[in-house]
Specification:
Length: 228
């Protein structure tokens, strides 16, 4: 049993730490400013927004990480992405504009993701309440069945977050490899020899969501195991 525990701990650490290390290393490797690039990630994002006629979509700098906000209709880029003319900055900027394109075209994947995110924000809070209340209710009712019922409801609510991650994966893949990479290639924004690096950056960024989905599944499985 101790060996199984050690293997599980090592697997957990690998899922959490290795993707983060790989993503950081990949981003840093392609994050050196390129004097041969005509502009920064922020400038490319603004150009693409105008090029594709994304009326009402803004581009701004943020300290909360690169993302597209569909509620505010804003492409938000970190300082490194916004200010640097690097391969990483260009690839990430194109990826976030890819999300803006998904929104502009009314693509179902992004719509479903946003609906589930709103639901998950509520279900996560209720799940925490159920898990806190379960042992208290069990003591009051003096019934193991009460605990199982409450914990079961909590697990069902947590499953919404797992569903969000699973729906996010194809949405992110499309933003990277269905939108950003073809834009960079067909628009002539990158030379042929730089496309491999851009592909690596986009693959590393997508892998963070794979790791997030795995973590959600592991967390859900842990709670299910407690009910057995």
């Amino acid at each position: 049993m101790a060996l199984i525990g050690l293997v599980a701990l090592a697997l957990f650490a690998a899922i959490v730490l290795l993707p983060q290390f790989w993503v950081r290393r990949t981003m840093q490797r392609h994050g050196t400013p390129r004097p041969d690039f005509p502009g920064t990630g922020g400038e490319l994002a603004r150009h693409l927004v105008e090029h594709f006629g994304l009326d009402g979509v803004g581009v701004e700098q943020t300290d909360k990480g690169d993302h597209y906000d569909p509620e505010a209709r804003v492409v938000r880029l970190s300082a490194d992405t916004y200010d640097k003319p690097s391969l990483t900055a260009v690839a990430i900027a194109a990826h976030e504009v890819g999300h803006a394109l998904q929104h502009h075209r009314g693509e179902n994947g992004l719509k479903l993701r946003q609906s589930l995110v709103r639901i998950a924000q509520v279900s996560d809070r209720f799940a925490a309440i159920f898990f806190i209340a379960a042992p208290v209710l069990t003591l009051v009712a003096r019934s193991p069945g009460a605990f199982l019922a409450m914990a079961g409801i909590g697990i069902a609510l947590l499953a919404v977050r797992v569903l969000v991650h699973l729906v996010t994966l194809p949405v992110e893949y499309d933003a990277s490899f269905g939108k950003a990479l073809p834009i960079l290639k067909e628009g002539g924004y990158l030379r042929e020899e730089d496309l491999g690096g851009a592909r690596s950056v986009l693959r590393a960024a997508a892998f963070t969501y794979v790791a997030g989905a795995l973590m959600s599944l592991i967390d859900l499985a842990r709670w299910i195991r407690l009910l057995r």
